[in-house]
């Protein structure tokens, strides 16, 4: 089920949930349409066979020793993962067993659909009892990955993004109405999200997910508790991610309460959707003004460019290579230790945790101090420094999910194998796409991959620069000035984030989404303020939680961190109604615009006080709806329903106006009669 309201009215499928990832380059399936790269272990690329993804991980990617970043906190890494879970979630095969005989993929080392196991090389430093690591292919878009005799063409296999591409807080609210309704507290008119246990500070945790059990365990000698329920299914993966999910659930309920106070006549539906709109805007603002500049540096931000308004011809869908390789750069920022700090930024009595002990362990939030120690550990300690010779720490390559898997997984090997499953072209093709030269020798990439030892190991593994997997090649590059990434990944991220902003009809800076006064308040939002407002009892933070600061001199009391004034959302002024500055729902107000002249259509109950101006206001609204109907090329059921609801509102408003005009006329006749009698 898609969201109730589409974003792009001309192309409703762009950026919608359960739609294909976008391709920048053609896939390179071994048989031309569906078998992944490396399916046939004897198949040669540029004269060489592909090395095992596990072998590449062990020889080049995995790092036992790591260096901490000198400037940035672990929160920068954590925001990246939280953001990623708002943009993409690949649908994996519905079956985890071979179609041929029903043998589960975890029990076979043969390439038989949907199983595509990662082969373990001889002499592996950790894995000795099996020849492979379990891996299941991603699901295919219906009809793709097959030949068509009828149409006489080949349709290459494409993969599915099951969530919306836009930065719209789908990780808080879900990407379907069914999930959203499951998260909402519909028992009252407060417009809130459901909550769970109340902790000592009086704040609430997320509700438990009792309907869809997944692996969330306690220590072996304790009874298990359910996982928490959030807008994204992956919320329980690790404690830092879970803490941010908790913070944003609380932020929704905090804003909803404030909006209810300034608009006591609003019902729960209005409060919920206007709050959701603000939350989405907050995430957009934090990402583009505070997070991305640190990741991409000045050159990368220049590639994104300044915001010039909504363009309905821009496809904001997530690119396959972005989701499958480029944005997974964040794995190179992860520390092997989860810091848990008290109010003086010292370890709590329960101590810090090796990362693998923080996977799927929500009980540690319930029983071991709440979310504050984890949040302080994120903004109070350094992230791992990304480095070509220290790519991904061994907690992720040697201990991933070892609490719930017989053989611990290898995240780097999984990333490489997923790129092959999705038939991503090799490193050379992405270099060319990003205006660099194709490399024929490993000396040709020495400007981008400056570490000679890394180049030597890559040559031993791949034989030719064009065979390097994108994930590995991207992490092997030295960072551009002022950024965290090399030129190839900087290019791919800049392209994606440019499209995500330009192609979003509901982008917070798009004229008409918020009033100028409201937009000024949105720009006051910072992640520091959100943490202050929604931690258990956090009272001081670094002003920019992505930047390291010395404690206590570099920290500010929460009372001095700027906050937004929600009184600007009071629905009371004639000016707001005339300007169309109030919007009931981020996803319920259709806008059709040409790139050069954005036009916003609104459906409001607030109307001008002057009856003659009211009539003109309604005529404008009805004409605007007609414009949408004429301009929309691809109608969906949800859009037709939405337009019908708007038209019904317009008719109701017109009836009210007609009634008011009749009353005015009666009053005027009464006044004239009185003057005549006098």
Automatic annotation (TrEMBL):
GO molecular function, one term: heme binding
Gene3D superfamilies per UniProt: Haem peroxidase domain superfamily, animal type
Classification via PROSITE patterns: PEROXIDASE_3 (PS50292)
Cofactor requirement: heme b
GO cellular component: extracellular space
Coiled-coil blocks: 636-677
Keyword terms of this UniProt record: Coiled coil, Disulfide bond, Glycoprotein, Heme, Iron, Metal-binding, Oxidoreductase, Peroxidase, Secreted, Signal
Subcellular location: Secreted
UniProt xrefs under Pfam families: An_peroxidase (PF03098)
Binding annotation for heme b: 331
GO terms, biological process: response to oxidative stress
Stretches that traverse the bilayer: none
Protein family according to the UniProt entry: Belongs to the peroxidase family. XPO subfamily.
Name under which the protein is recorded: Thyroid peroxidase-like protein
Source organism (scientific name): Lytechinus variegatus (Green sea urchin)
């Amino acid at each position: 089920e898609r969201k109730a309201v589409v974003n792009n009215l001309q192309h409703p499928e762009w950026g919608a949930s359960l739609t294909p990832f976008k391709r920048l380059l053609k896939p390179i399936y071994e048989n031309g349409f569906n078998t992944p790269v490396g399916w046939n272990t004897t198949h040669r690329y540029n004269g060489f066979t592909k090395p095992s993804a596990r072998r590449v991980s062990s020889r080049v990617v995995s790092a036992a020793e790591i260096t901490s970043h000198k400037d940035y906190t672990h929160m920068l890494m954590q925001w990246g993962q939280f953001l990623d879970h708002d943009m993409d979630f690949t649908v994996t095969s519905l079956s985890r067993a071979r179609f041929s005989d029903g043998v589960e993929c975890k029990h076979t080392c043969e390439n038989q659909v949907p199983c595509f196991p990662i082969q373990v090389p001889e002499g592996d430093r950790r894995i000795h009892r099996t020849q492979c690591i379990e891996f299941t292919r991603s699901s295919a878009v219906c009809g793709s990955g097959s030949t068509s005799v009828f149409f006489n063409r080949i349709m290459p296999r494409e993969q599915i993004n099951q969530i919306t591409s836009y930065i719209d807080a789908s990780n808080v609210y879900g990407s379907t109405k069914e999930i959203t309704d499951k998260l909402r507290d519909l028992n009252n008119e407060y417009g809130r999200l459901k909550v769970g246990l109340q902790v000592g500070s009086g704040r609430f945790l997320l509700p438990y997910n009792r309907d869809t059990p997944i692996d969330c365990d306690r220590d072996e000698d304790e009874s298990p508790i359910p996982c928490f329920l959030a807008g994204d299914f992956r919320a329980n993966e690790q404690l830092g991610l879970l803490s941010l999910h908790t913070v944003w659930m609380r932020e929704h309920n905090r804003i909803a309460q404030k909006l209810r106070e300034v608009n006591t006549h609003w019902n729960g539906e209005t409060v919920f959707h206007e709050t959701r709109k603000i939350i989405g805007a907050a995430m957009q603002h934090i990402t583009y003004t505070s997070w991305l500049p640190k990741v991409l540096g000045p050159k990368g931000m220049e590639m994104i460019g300044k915001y010039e308004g909504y363009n309905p011809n821009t496809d904001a869908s997530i690119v396959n290579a972005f989701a499958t390789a480029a944005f997974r750069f964040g794995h190179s920022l992860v520390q092997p230790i989860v810091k848990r700090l008290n109010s003086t930024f010292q370890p709590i009595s329960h101590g810090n945790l090796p990362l693998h002990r923080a996977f799927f362990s929500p009980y540690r939030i319930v029983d071991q101090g709440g979310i504050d120690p984890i949040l302080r550990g994120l903004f109070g300690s350094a992230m791992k420094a990304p480095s070509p010779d220290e790519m991904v720490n061994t907690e992720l390559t040697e201990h991933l999910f070892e609490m719930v898997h017989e053989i611990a997984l290898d995240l780097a090997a999984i990333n490489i194998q997923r790129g092959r499953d999705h038939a991503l072209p090799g490193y050379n093709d992405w270099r060319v796409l990003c205006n660099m030269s194709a490399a024929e020798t490993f000396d040709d990439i020495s400007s981008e991959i400056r570490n000679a030892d890394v180049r030597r190991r890559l040559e031993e593994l791949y034989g030719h620069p064009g065979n390097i997997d994108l994930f590995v090649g991207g992490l092997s590059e030295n960072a551009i000035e002022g950024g965290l990434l090399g030129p190839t990944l900087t290019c791919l991220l800049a392209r994606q984030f440019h499209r995500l902003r330009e192609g979003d009809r509901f982008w917070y800076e798009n004229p008409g989404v918020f009033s100028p006064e409201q937009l000024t308040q949105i720009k006051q939002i910072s992640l520091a303020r959100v943490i202050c407002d929604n931690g258990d009892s956090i009272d001081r933070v670094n002003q920019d939680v992505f930047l390291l600061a010395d404690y206590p001199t570099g920290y500010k009391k929460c009372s001095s961190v700027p906050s937004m004034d929600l009184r600007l959302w009071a629905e009371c002024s004639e000016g707001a109604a005339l300007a169309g500055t109030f919007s009931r729902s981020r996803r319920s107000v259709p806008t059709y615009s040409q790139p050069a002249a954005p036009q916003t259509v609104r459906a409001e109950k607030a109307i001008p006080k002057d009856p003659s101006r009211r009539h003109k206001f309604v005529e404008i609204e009805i004409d605007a709806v007609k414009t949408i109907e004429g301009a929309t090329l691809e109608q969906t059921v949800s859009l037709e329903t939405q337009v019908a609801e708007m038209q019904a509102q317009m008719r109701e408003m017109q009836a009210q106006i007609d009634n008011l005009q009749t009353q005015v006329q009666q009053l005027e006749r009464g006044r004239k009669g009185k003057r005549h009698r006098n």
